[in-house]
Design brief:
264 residues, alpha+beta, twelve-stranded mixed β-sheet, two-stranded antiparallel sheet
Amino acid sequence: MTALNREPGGRVVIASGQEGPVVVIASGDHWLVVEKPAGMSIHNDPGRDLCSLVLAAVRKATVPAMAPDVSGIHAVHRLDRDTSGIVLLAVDGATRAFFGAQFAARTVHKRYLALVHGTLPVDGRWTEWNWPLAEGAGGRRDPMGRGKRMACATRWRVLDTSAHYSLIECEPLSGRQHQIRRHARLAGHAVVGDRRYGSARALAFLARYCQFNRLALHAHLLTLQVPGGTQAVAMTSAGLPDTMGRLFAADQPQGNDTCGTMPP
């Protein structure tokens, strides 16, 4: 059996990507929840995507409560390549269907942390973005997308602000592609580092002066029922990724860091 690495907090590291490790948040007989780094695809990149790396790790070592002879790893839900955070994986069709039914019934709750451009009032209140969105994702000039637009809602609240950014927690109440990113753009507060919906000027500045080259969006909480359970359980990530935290900390009104002069 191959020894598994552990983070300082005791969480198991089972693989590594260019932007960081893949960490096990929780696991059962036929499922596991992992935290993936930004820049890693869930599938469609054989040998380097999340499912490939997790399958290889499971076969080499004993992930808690999981046998090493699984035949495949399947993602139960989507998470964009550029988004970091929690992903639910299943190792057989029955388990995938069990979780999939909860997603279809909209009983699963997902929350994200995001850095967005601009300073918003920190009042702790939840509010909603309600712009209708088309199925197609569109881009920075047309975030609503082309074609029929459907009702769409994202709950959000401000947790903290720096000189030029706001740290928000958000929860998509519907399931359009890039929903949080599109709604943030429509609100005039694009997600920091968003190559599709953000401004080219801000992206260039972030890369040149801050060495920040990722999307500042992180899936940090997933609430659902697991096989054998009777109540929903909440699974959380380790918190704000280091790259996002450093950028936010450096962007202070009296700071001397170059990133403190970030343009809008």
